[in-house]
Amino acid sequence: MLFLGTGTSVGVPVVGCDCPTCRSPHPKNQRTRTSVLLGLPEGVALVDTAPDLRSQLLREGVGLVHAVLFTHAHADHLLGLDDLRVFAYYLGHHVPLYCEPEVERRIRHMFDYAFDVPPESKASRPRVEFHTVSLDPFRLLGATIVPLRLKHGPLDVLGFRVGNVAYCTDTNAIPDPTLERLRGLDVLVLDCLRERPHPTHFNLEQALEQAARIGARRTLLTHISHELEHEATSRRLPPGVELAYDGLCIPLS
């Protein structure tokens, strides 16, 4: 798993902000919008198409994505979808997108120019095909993907488990049935927005409570705002819990 981005919806630094985190030269305080790549046995799967997708892929030297999984339909997880355009040429077919029906509906609305257009217009649009995801595990690129129901305020969203690694961004509640799917993890990637409470994200205290409850051997916090400076926050974390950062790479077991 490669962390393309670990920042909140406005990224870090925040435009117009002169707080110490936003002015910090520390590279781990430079957080683009949240997304990860999964290196699977038969190819590379992207989780969400953040607005920073093109620059993230160039930064990490990634030249091909074989499929995309979506957690939910918020703009900071969708707006880089047009950057998938080049991959249809490399693959020789449409890029498969795996998502729930509401996410498909939002994508078709936001990127209406990509659908129902004449063949001669294909060069100016991303060519994608939808695959509906439920809570049932499914096979993708030689791996089993286990969808995880999460709550993001009132919104139902998805996390994903691959082997003993689980990715749970944009959440402030984990239903009991999902907790059963999170047993025996080596690595948990978990939402942690800031110090103060938030109506749709875990704050630091809540994220640490969930990490202890789930009991993964290692927990990495993501979707981090500028209110959590990397070094200062890291010194306060208990053993086994870390802040993720852009460019971090961990093995998928």
Description:
The chain is 20% helix and 26% strand. The longest helix has 11 residues, at 204-214. The model has no long low-confidence stretch (mean pLDDT 96). It has helices at 20-23, 53-60, 85-91, 101-110, 176-181, 204-214, 230-234, and strands at 2-5, 35-40, 43-47, 67-69, 95-99, 128-132, 138-140, 143-152, 155-162, 165-168, 187-191, 218-222, 241-243. It is of the alpha/beta class. It has a single domain (2-243), classed as Metallo-beta-lactamase, Chain A (4-Layer Sandwich).
Low-confidence stretches: none
Q: Largest beta sheet: what is the strand line-up?
A: 7-8-9-10-11-12-13
What is the helix content?
10-25%
Mean pLDDT, rounded to whole units? 96
Query: Which fold name fills CATH's third level, the topology?
Result: Metallo-beta-lactamase, Chain A
Number of helices: 7
Anisotropy-based shape: globular
Quickly give the CATH architecture: 4-Layer Sandwich
Order of helices and strands: EHEEHEHEHEEEEEHEHEHE
**Helix/sheet category:** alpha/beta
Share of residues in strands: 25-35%
Rg from C-alpha positions?
Answer: 18 Å
